[in-house]
Amino acid sequence: MEVVASAPGKVLISGGYLILERPNAGLVLSTNARFYAIVKPLYEEIKPESWAWSWTDVKVSSPQLSREATYKLSLEKSTLHCTTSRNSVNPFVEHAVQYAVAAARRNFVEKGKKDVLEKVLVQGLDITILGSNDFYSFRSQIEAHGLPLTRKTLATFPSFFSITFNTEGWNGTVSRSCKPEVAKTGLGSSAAMTTSVVAALLHYFGVVKLPSSSISLTEQVSAELNIDMVHIIAQSAHCLAQGKIGSGFDVSAAVFGSQRYVRFSPSVLSSAQIGGSYMPDVISDILNAKWDHEASRFSLPPLMTLLLGEPGSGGSSTTSMVGSVKQWQKSDPKNYLETWTRLADANAKLEAQLNLLNKFAREQWAIYEQIMGMCSYSAHEKWMEQVVDQFQEEVVKSLLGARDYFFKIRFLMQQMGKAAGVPIEPESQTQLLDSTMNMEGVLLAGVPGAGGFDAIFAIIIGEATDAVAKAWSSVGVLPLLVKEDSHGVSLEAGDPRNSELTSAISSIKIN
Q1: Rounded average pLDDT per 10-residue block, the chain, 511 residues
Q2: What is the chain's alpha carbon radius of gyration, rounded to the nearest angstrom?
Q3: Secondary structure of 60-110 as H, E, C letters
Q4: What distance in Å separates the CA atoms of residue 235 and residue 301, rounded to the nearest whole number?
Q5: What is the pTM of this model?
Q6: DSSP state of 453
Q7: Which domains are seen in the chain, by residue range?
Q8: CA 219 to CA 211: how far, in whole Å?
């Protein structure tokens, strides 16, 4: 038996920093960039003496990174012991495997069917991990070959292309002490990867039933009731692997898709943070804890498109930036609270305008479609001039309202960055974003998540995406192929490298 599960990457369009504290919400979009985990037996036959074993074998392969790690898995404790070089291991994968196996063991023990799981485990686990190209930056390769920084160039790369490592130090020199890192685009690769592995294993063991990748959104809402365990286990494994308890919006998006998210209370993972804890006890505590996160469905209003760009102006450390903001919070609590309150208000009002646009689309589609078509071919200051009736006026008011509140969010984030001494929206990004928001058909343009130099995004109306992409390319910004896709974790029909869908995607022609 072979199980293939996938989980999407994310873009946080509002709620940066706010989302770290309850009850503040963030709007996060899942994307068509997905991580895939393929799980199958390592051995075809079970030897009779295998039943006496207290361990089994696990192999984890990452073809894009040319890495393979092997482990011994304790059937009793659900812990992994690496039998290859530690340079080949990934802590997120290790925690995902251990927590998924422990959760499955607890499930079968409670049902008095522990031997059913052990029968599966003694065949070993063969896990292959693949990530969509969109998670990784190919900018250096494109520039090295003198190719244009366009989506058309990106589309020529084969699917699941081999990943290169950055080996240069901060000053551009190669250092033996510099740990090679993969250049990424900030879509939450570790969260998507962790979720895909947890989901594939839990489905493989028969603990959960994942929704099919071909399922309708309506059906998926009810199917989500079966994947709460995927969320809890993936969230726990991801937090423990990164050594801190984050907001968790990236894992939640990987499980449930595009959403309005409010974080869980960190206390639900208190037992997991105690070093040397017995894994079965930790899993019981985690699964029995009161997970108080909120994840309600959200998506962009119809006829709007997400476009991401890679400025190529250097990366940013989210952890460092968050740390600086928290330090400012302690040193200047009065100004922090004032900024925080205004920022939360602006985020809530942006969300209200986007929800209103979704409502307009449901109730008066023909008129909504007409006004969106007109707005896509003109700059925002011309939108109201095209209004011919009250309903169209209401739609345009919501569009302009969303822009106004988003400008307030950007201004407050800039102020917060200056006060904390970190470039949440760097000046170079500000100039680029302002010019983008003045283009025809552009609703919003900003820096996602914690901000910095990593990426920019735009929310574009109608048919204006190609014009914005070309404008970005002309100023050295690489527009990416990734789009919004509101589906969360999914069960795939087979290995994506062999699917006709992958071949079709890799041959898309971008104008």
Answers
A1: 96 95 96 98 75 82 94 90 84 96 93 87 96 94 94 95 63 41 87 98 95 62 70 96 92 97 94 76 92 94 97 73 91 94 97 97 95 95 93 96 98 94 90 96 94 90 95 96 95 86 43 38
A2: 23
A3: EEEHHHCEEEEEEEECCCCCEEECCCHHHCCHHHHHHHHHHHHHHHHHHHH
A4: 28
A5: 0.92
A6: S
A7: 34-244+489-506 (no CATH), 304-479 (3.30.70.890)
A8: 9
